Amino acid sequence: MPKEIGLCLLVVLQGCMRYALAQAQSTLTVQIPAGRIECFYHTATQNVPFELEYQVISGGELDINLAVRNPNAQIVIQEHKKNDNLHRFDAAVPGEYQICFDNSFSTFQPKLVFFEVFEDRKETHAAEFHQLGINGQMPVDAVGLKVEDLQNSLGKVHLNLEKVVKSQTVVRHFEAVDRVILESNFDKVNTYSGIQTAVMVVVGVVQVVMVRSLFEERSKIGRVLRGKQARTFT
């Protein structure tokens, strides 16, 4: 009996490893220069769905154009001046999908874009796990468990982990946007504060010079100011 339990645990461990590898993910943060189009490629397997999620983190009005082409060079997604979005593809046509971010409408402002591609293979691995055993010698039913029960449990764990990853990704996106806005406001406050301080110093120096010149007989500025005052009183 202990041997059977050990074999069962090994089956469960293999199933967990398969579910852990069930989702391939690629994440990039790229800068799209002003007036440029940058393209990236994702190789899709037939009937293995994948998701594309993107968000503009900084630059201009936080907008970008998006165009996605399938391996037949057909446009499947086209968007104009969007801040963020999420798209799901069934990958009915296998091959390289072209993902292009277009910042050609911007003259001066580059755009910092965060995007990620999820490839969901859990259905394929679920079918493999359904037939999983130890070299075909020890089915899980031997210790009173069912493959369907383990599959459902692992599926729930995988779904919950996927939700956690999604939530963390969303929080990371908002944090990046807030950080960029905060740093931009910090630079603006420092710049305007420096200008205001410089103006106050210059005005203070001019006032001191003018007041001192009123009490100095040899001062040209004082003679000019006193002359104007004298003409005013007369």
Automatic annotation (TrEMBL):
It is a single-pass membrane protein; Single-pass type I membrane protein. Residues 1-24 form the signal peptide. GO terms for cellular component: endomembrane system; membrane. Keywords: Membrane, Signal, Transmembrane, Transmembrane helix. It comes from the Eukaryota. Belongs to the EMP24/GP25L family. This is GOLD domain-containing protein. The gene is RvY_14301-1.
